[in-house]
C-alpha cells in the first residue's frame, strides 16, 4: 500500500531536516577552507592557488547535490556513475593542485576527504570503513608529499587549521549518524502503516466472520432441503413442494440478514465500538480520546451511531495518517450528536458539508474532493441516519487543520450511564 499523503509529507520533511544538517556541515567546512585559501591569496593571486579555489568551489557545488543521494540510507548503493565521477573529479584535482599551490598543503586534500565520506556512506559496511580509512591515510599523506615537492607542511598551517581538521575528522561519523536517524524514521513509518493495514484486515476478518455466521447455516439448510426435495420429487410431490417452499423462505431470510449486515442494521453495542475504535487506532499509532457522556437508551440510535464509529474508524485507518483522533458524544435538546475529529486532513470526504468546508471552497472543489475517494461508506451512513431522522456532515474545519465527521440523531427519551473518558 502506498504511503498516505500525510505520512509521505512527514517523512519528506524529516529527510529535508536531515539533508539540511548534512549540507550545513559541508558548507561550513568548505567555507572555512575557502577562507583559509583567501588568506593565502592575500599577498598575491598565484595561478595555482586560483585554480585550487576554483576546484574547491566546484567540489562544493557537486557535494551539495550529491548529498541528496544519501536518502537511500547507509549502504543504499551509489547513484549513477557519472555523479560519483563528478564528485571525485574536482576534489581529486584540488588534491593534486594543493601539492604545488602556496597555502594549499592539507587544505587541498579536504575536498577529496569530504567526497570520500559521502561515497563511503552509500557503500556496504565493510567497503565503507575500508574507504574511510584509505581516505584518512590519503589526506594525512598530502602535507608530507607537499613537503617533498618543496612547499612544506607549514604552507597549510594556520590559526584555524586545528579546528578545521577536528571537524573534518568528525565528518564521517556525523554523516553516518544522521543517516542512521533517517533510517529509523523510515522504519517507524513503515511499521505504522503496517499496523494500520493490520487493523483494517482485522476489521475485514470480523465482518467476514459475521457474514459466515449468517450464510453458513442458511446455505447448509438450503443444500439439505434441496437434496431432500429432489429425492421426494418422484415419490411424494406434495412433500417435495413443501421442501422447495421452505428452501425459498430460508433463502429469502438469508438474503435479508445479509442485507442487514452489509447495511449495518444489526444491533451493535455503541460502547464496545468506541472502545474498539480506541484500541485499533492506538495500535495504528494514533492518540485517541473518548469524551462520552450518557449513552442513548434507544436501540436504533445506539446501533446507527455504532455504525458511524466503525465506518469512521475504518476510513481514518485506510485514507489518512492521523496522529490524534477525538470522539465526542453528547445529548442536548432531544438530539444526540457524535463528533469524530482527527488531524488527518489529507483524508478527503465524499461530500463536504457547507458548515465544515473551508471558507471560500467552491462547488467544483467540493465535487473534486468527492471524486477522489472511492466507495460509498459515508453515503451509506448518511442513508442510515436519514432513515432515523438523523444527519451526517463530513469535511475539514475552516482552519484546514483537522477533519470532522458529525452525526446528529434525534432521540425521544433520556439516557443511561455512559462511558468515561
Give a concise summary:
It contains 11 helices and 7 strands. The protein has 421 residues and is α+β, with helices and mostly antiparallel strands.
Question: Can you describe what's shown?
Answer:
- The structure is a single chain.
- The protein has 421 residues and is an alpha+beta fold.
- The chain folds into 3 domains: 5-191; 198-263, Up-down Bundle (Single alpha-helices involved in coiled-coils or other helix-helix interfaces); 270-416, Heat Shock Protein 90, CATH 3.30.565.10.
- Helix content is 63%, strand content 10%.
- The protein contains 11 helices and 7 strands.
- The protein has helices at residues 5-40, 47-66, 81-97, 110-121, 125-149, 161-232, 237-263, 270-283, 299-319, 363-371, 377-387, and strands at 287-292, 295-296, 324-332, 335-342, 391-396, 403-410, 415-416.
- A 5-stranded mixed β-sheet has the order 1-3-4-6-5. A two-stranded antiparallel sheet has the order 2-7.
Walk me through the topology.
Blueprint: H1 5-40, H2 47-66, H3 81-97, H4 110-121, H5 125-149, H6 161-232, H7 237-263, H8 270-283, E1 287-292, E2 295-296, H9 299-319, E3 324-332, E4 335-342, H10 363-371, H11 377-387, E5 391-396, E6 403-410, E7 415-416
Parallel strand pairs: 1-3
Antiparallel strand pairs: 2-7, 3-4, 4-6, 5-6
Helix pairs in contact: 1-2, 1-6, 2-3, 2-4, 3-4, 4-5, 4-6, 6-7, 8-9, 9-11
Amino acid at each position: 500500500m502506498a504511503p498516505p499523503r500525510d505520512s509521505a509529507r512527514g517523512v519528506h520533511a524529516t529527510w529535508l531536516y536531515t539533508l539540511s544538517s548534512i549540507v550545513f556541515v559541508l558548507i561550513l567546512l568548505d567555507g572555512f577552507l575557502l577562507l583559509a585559501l583567501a588568506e593565502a591569496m592575500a599577498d598575491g593571486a598565484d595561478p595555482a592557488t586560483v585554480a585550487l579555489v576554483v576546484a574547491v568551489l566546484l567540489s562544493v557545488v557537486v557535494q551539495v547535490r550529491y548529498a541528496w543521494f544519501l536518502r537511500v540510507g547507509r549502504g543504499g548503493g551509489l547513484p549513477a556513475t557519472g555523479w560519483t565521477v563528478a564528485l571525485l573529479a574536482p576534489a581529486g584535482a584540488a588534491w593534486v593542485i594543493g601539492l604545488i599551490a602556496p597555502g594549499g598543503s592539507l587544505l587541498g586534500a579536504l575536498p577529496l576527504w569530504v567526497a570520500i565520506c559521502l561515497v563511503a556512506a552509500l557503500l556496504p559496511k565493510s567497503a565503507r570503513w575500508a574507504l574511510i580509512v584509505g581516505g584518512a591515510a590519503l589526506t594525512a599523506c598530502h602535507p608530507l608529499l607537499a613537503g617533498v615537492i618543496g612547499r612544506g607542511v607549514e604552507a597549510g598551517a594556520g590559526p584555524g587549521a586545528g579546528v578545521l581538521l577536528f571537524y573534518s575528522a568528525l565528518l564521517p561519523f556525523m554523516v553516518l549518524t544522521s543517516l542512521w536517524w533517517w533510517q529509523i524514521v523510515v522504519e517507524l513509518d513503515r511499521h505504522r502503516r503496517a499496523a494500520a493495514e493490520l487493523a483494517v484486515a482485522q476489521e475485514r476478518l470480523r465482518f467476514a466472520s459475521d457474514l459466515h455466521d449468517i450464510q453458513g447455516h442458511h446455505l447448509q439448510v438450503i443444500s439439505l432441503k434441496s437434496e431432500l426435495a429432489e429425492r421426494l420429487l418422484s415419490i411424494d410431490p406434495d412433500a417435495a413442494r413443501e421442501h422447495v417452499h421452505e428452501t425459498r423462505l430460508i433463502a429469502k431470510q438469508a438474503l435479508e440478514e445479509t442485507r442487514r449486515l452489509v447495511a449495518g442494521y444489526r444491533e451493535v453495542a455503541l460502547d464496545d465500538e468506541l472502545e474498539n475504535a480506541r484500541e485499533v487506532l492506538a495500535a495504528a499509532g494514533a492518540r485517541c480520546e473518548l469524551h462520552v457522556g450518557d449513552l442513548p437508551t434507544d436501540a436504533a440510535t445506539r446501533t446507527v451511531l455504532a455504525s458511524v464509529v466503525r465506518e469512521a474508524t475504518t476510513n481514518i485507518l485506510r485514507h489518512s495518517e492521523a496522529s490524534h483522533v477525538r470522539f465526542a458524544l453528547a445529548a442536548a435538546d432531544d438530539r444526540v450528536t457524535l463528533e469524530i475529529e482527527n488531524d488527518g486532513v489529507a483524508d478527503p470526504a465524499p461530500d463536504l458539508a457547507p458548515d465544515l468546508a473551508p471558507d471560500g471552497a467552491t462547488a467544483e472543489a467540493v465535487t473534486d474532493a468527492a471524486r477522489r475517494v472511492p466507495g460509498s461508506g459515508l453515503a451509506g451512513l448518511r442513508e442510515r441516519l436519514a432513515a432515523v431522522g438523523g444527519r451526517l456532515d463530513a469535511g475539514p474545519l475552516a482552519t484546514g487543520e483537522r477533519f470532522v465527521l458529525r452525526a446528529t440523531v434525534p432521540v425521544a427519551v433520556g439516557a443511561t450511564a455512559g462511558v468515561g473518558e
